[in-house]
Amino acid sequence: MAYPNLLREGRINRMRTKNRIITGPMERAMANRDGTLNQRYIDYLVERARGGAGLVNVESTYVDPRGQGNPFQVGCHDDRVIPGFTRLVDALHNEGAVVSVELYFAGRQSASTATLRQPLAPTAIPCSFFDPMPLPLEMTQADIDDVVRAFADAAARCLKAGVDMIHLHGSHGYLLEQFLSPWSNKRTDKYGGSAENRARFALEVVAAVRNVVGPDYPIGYRISMEEYVEGGLTTADTIPFCKLLVKAGINLIDITAGIYETGSEIFQGPERGHGGFVPIAEQLKKAVGDTVPVSVTQKLNDPDLAESVLADGRADFISMTRAFHADPHFVRKIEQDRAEDIVPCIACHTCLNLFFGRKVAHCAVNPQSTFERTRALRITERPRHVTVIGGGPAGMTAARLLARQGNSVELYEARPVLGGQLNQAALAAHDYGYFVSYLSRQMEKLHVDVKLGQTLDAATLADHDTDAIIIATGARGGYTYATTSGGRPVFNVISAFDRDITAWSGRVVIIGGDAESCFLAVRLGTARPDLRIDIVDPDSGFALNKAAPARNLLIAQVDALENVHLHPERTVEEVGDGFIRLQHRGVPETWNDVQDVVTGGRVSNVELYESLMEINPELEVYRIGDCIEPRDIHEGTQEAAEVVELIRLRSLERRAAPAEAGVGIR
C-alpha cells in the first residue's frame, strides 16, 4: 500500500472512519435559500463518498439565521431541515462514509445581505472584509443564552437525522473565536478580559452540545491557532485553550488559521507552498499528545506530503477541502495507486470568487464539480472524430472529456509544449503548473493524438477529415496605443513572461493594470528585487478584470512588494528611448530612466475561427476559452464541458435524422 497512514482506519470517540482523510467543510452556495438541502447538493457529497472519502463534513452550517454568512448556505436552525439531512445521511452511509455537520454562528462576520439583520458580536467591532461594513450589535446575556441554546437545538436535529458527528466551527473569525480572541472581544463582564473569561462562551457551547448528544458521540472543534493580526490569538493563547477543550470532552481538534481580515492565510493562493499549517498543528500535537486526535488543513492535496505528516506523527487526520472539490475521487485514486491521475487543485480562488459572489462555487480544473448529475460521464453511443486547435487548459480539457466519452481526438498546438498561457502564469504562481502537468499526462493516457509545433490554416482545416472542430486558440498580447519613438521595443504581457528573467534591468513600466499585468509585476518583483516596476492604468483600481476576493488577494501580493508601485488614473501618451510621457488628470508627467516598457492586456485570437466561418458556415465548429474573450481558466474549462456535451448530443441528432434530410453522417 503506497499510503498506509492515509488509508489506515481512524477513530474519533467511538466512531470509526475507514481512512484518515476528512473532506473539509467547504461552503458552496448550493443550498436552498431557507437553508434546506437539495438534490444537487446531495449529489455533490455522494460523489465524494463514492470516491472513497471516509468522513464527509457538510459545510459551515448556521444554527440561527442571524449568524448566516451566505444566502445559499446550509442551515440547521429549524426542524424543516431534518428531512434533507436524513436523505443525505442515508445516501452517504450507502457509500460507506460517515457524516459530520459543522455548526457555527458567524457573529461580526455575518453578512447582513444574507441575514437582513444587524450582526451580533461580543463587541461592536465591524468586519472590514465587507463593503459596506455593518456595525455589529454587542450581545447581551439574553443573546448569548439564545445562541448557546441554538447550538444545542441544532445538535438535537443532527441526532434526529442520523448525523454521525458534529464539528463546532471555532475558527476563521466566527463567533466562538470572536469571544476567545482579545482582538475582537473587549468585554468587561464575565465573558471578557482574562483568558478564562474569554473561553467561557465556547466552553458553554461545548457543554450544551455534549449534554444533548451524550458521552459517546464524537464532537470535533475547528480552531484558528493563529489570527495573524496584532493583538489577536497566537499559539501561546490557543494551545492552553485546546487543553480546556480536551477536558470539556472534545474528541477531535481541527487546525486552521486566520480570520476574514487576514483572508490570505485562510485562502492561501497558487503562489504559496503546501501544508502551511502543519508546523502549528505539530506544536499542538506535542502539547496534547494522545489525549485527542489532531487534524490539519491547508493545501495538503499532495498525497506524499499528507502521508509524511501522518507518518511523522505531526497530526492524526488530514482535512482536505478544495482538493475534494477538484477531484471527488481523490481517495479512490490513491487506493488504486493512481495518484498521478488526481485532478490537482491549483488554489486559483475560482470557487471562492463565485461563493462570495453568491453563485454556486464551480471548479476551474474540474468542470464536472457541482454538476455531478448533469455532467456525469456518458460514453457516446456513436464515437466521432474531433479536432481540437489549441493546447491550453480549455483545449486540453475538451480533449480529455471527449476522449473519456470514447471519441477519437487529435489536438494541434502551435507551440512546442502544451499548456498555453498557464505556463507563463506558473512562473508567478507555481500551482498552475500542476494543472498543465496533469492535463499533459491525460493526453498521453487517453491516447489523444497531440501534434506539437503544428498549425492548420483555415482552408486546410475546412477540408480536414473530421466530424467536429473545437477552436481553442486562446489570446495574444494587447496593443500599444501610445505613440512610440526612438525605436525602443515594447513588450506585451505574454512576450514579457517569455523573456529571460535576467534580461530585465533598471526601471520597468507596465502600461495597463489588469490582473495579468499584476501577475507579471509579482513575477518580476519577486524574482528581481533590484528592479523598479511601475504599473500605470487610467482606472482608479487595478486587476479589475478579476473577481473579489481573489482580486484583493492579488493586490495584497502586489502591495507587499516594495519595488512595485501602482499609479492609477494615468494614461501613457508616448513611449520614447529611455522615457515615457504620461498625463494624470490633465497634468503632463515625464518619467526618465525607463529601461523596459510592457503593454498589458490581451486580445482574442479569433482569425482562424472567423476564416472558417467565412469559408464554410455549415461546418460543425465550436469556440471555447480565451479566443472568445480573454478571461480566467474557469470560463474556458466550463465552455469545454458544455461543448463536449453538445457534440455528443449532435451525434445523437444526426443518427436519428433520416438520410433524405441531407444531414451528413460520418
Question: Mind explaining what this structure looks like?
Answer:
There is one protein chain. The protein has 666 residues and is of the alpha/beta class. It folds into three domains: 10-356, TIM Barrel (Alpha-Beta Barrel), CATH 3.20.20; 385-474 and 605-661, 3-Layer(aba) Sandwich (Rossmann fold), CATH 3.40.50; 479-602, FAD/NAD(P)-binding domain, CATH 3.50.50.60. It has 23 helices and 28 strands. The protein has an eight-stranded parallel beta barrel with strand order 3-4-5-8-9-10-11-12, surrounded by seven helices. It is globular, with a radius of gyration of 27 Å. Residues 658-666 have low confidence and may be disordered.
Quote the average pLDDT: 95
Count of β-strands: 28
Biggest β-sheet strands, sense, barrel: 8 strands, parallel, barrel
Largest sheet, order of strands side by side?
3-4-5-8-9-10-11-12
Task: Specify the CATH class of the largest domain.
Answer: Alpha Beta
In short:
The protein is of the alpha/beta class. It has three domains: 10-356, Alpha-Beta Barrel (TIM Barrel), CATH 3.20.20; 385-474 and 605-661, NAD(P)-binding Rossmann-like Domain (Rossmann fold); 479-602, FAD/NAD(P)-binding domain, CATH 3.50.50.60.
Features of the shown structure:
666 residues; alpha/beta; TIM Barrel; Rossmann fold; FAD/NAD(P)-binding domain; 3 domains; eight-stranded parallel β-barrel; five-stranded parallel beta sheet; 23 helices; globular; disordered C terminus
